Structures are given as C-alpha cells and as structure tokens.
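Hi everyone, sorry if this is the wrong subforum. Our group has a chain we'd like a structural model of before ordering constructs, and none of us has done structure prediction before. Sequence below.
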Amino acid sequence: MGEKVILLDQFVSMFGMRARIALAAKGVVYDYREQDLFNKSQLLLQSNPIHKQIPILIQNDKPVCESLIILEYIDEVWNQGYPLLPPHPYQRAQARFWVDYIDKQFYGTGRKIWCTSSEEELEAGKKELVETLKQLESQLGEEAFFGGERLGFLDVVLVPYSTCFHTYKMCSGFSIREHCPKLTQCVKRCIDFVSESLADPAKIYDFVSVMRKVLGLHTL
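Answer:
Right subforum, don't worry. Here is the predicted structure as tokens:
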C-alpha cells in the first residue's frame, strides 16, 4: 500500500501493548517511537492535543488516539488475517462490555497493590483484584481463549495486564495463579502468541520500583 504507519508509545504502557499486539496480528509494518511522558514530543502533542497521552497510531499523517479505538481501527483497516472482534453483533457487544469492565476495574485496583504503603489499602486491592479476575474467569468457560479457539479482542485487551502479575507478587506476595488457575492458563496461551509485543515483566517491576521511590513509598 506504500503507507506510513507510526506508533507513539512507551514500553511499559499496557494500553500501548494492545496496539502492538493488534499490529503484529495483522502483519502491519510500522515505525515504533518510544515516548518520554515527562518530556513529551511535539509529534505527540500535535497528534493528541486533547489528552496528550499515548498510545497514538498515525497512518499516513492521520492520528488515531485511545487504545480501544486504535484496536477497532486496526481491525477495520487491515482486514488481512482474521478479525479480532467476533462476527455477530451480540458477541461484539459482549466483548466490548467485558473490555470496559477490565479497564474500569483492573487499572485502579492494580494501583492499590503497587502504589501504596498502607497494609489496609493493599489488602483491599488484593481482594478487589481477585473478585475482578474471578468474574473474568467465569466468562472463559471451556474455551482456550476469550475469543474462542483463537486470540480475540478481549484477549488482546487483557493480556498486557499480565505483565504486572510479577510486580504484584514482588510487592505483596500476591499470586494470580493461586486464585485463578484457569485464567492464568488462558493468559499463558495468549503470551505464547504475542510475547514479542509485550514488555518484560521484570522491567515493569523495575519501572514500578523507580516510581515508588519517586512517590516516596517504602518497600512493601
């Protein structure tokens, strides 16, 4: 197509990893540009003047912002391979519902685990995370993936969060596998397909450790 595709991202971003997974699944060649969010580039500010956040997908100088919008855009524009969203309108609605649930529950709950020095808040975060994961696990049924027999929209949204599981364990001794073994197996199958698009969990922990020092939090 002779097109130019750029992804503005940061390696630790769970939201950026979604775009990387989708682009890889579709076989799209793109220019990855790591962003310093403490010193935002002019291209980032021009491309997303409202929120000034990553990820940003730029196709032929036209920016697309917000990770879920980017995922659906990739799915629509590059139709090679298989679709990430299911074919039936009801199934698509259900996938979008659970994706919304993940983003509303997972991000804030995860922060309670790594971004606190309060034992009370830590325990509350662990309890909330288990409840969230068990709700998701109940939707998996006997399928290999949330997308059925292959990686789908919901899997692409969920699996980047798994890069934080190591951090949760290091910060609090909290093991996802102990509480949600079926979900853990699903995530492992996803990782086998998309590992090159994910950040190293050890580097996520290193990043979080630096952030905790910046925030003045002691080691848990």
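For your construct planning: The beta strands are 5-9, 31-34, 56-59, 62-65. The first strand starts at residue 5 and ends at 9.
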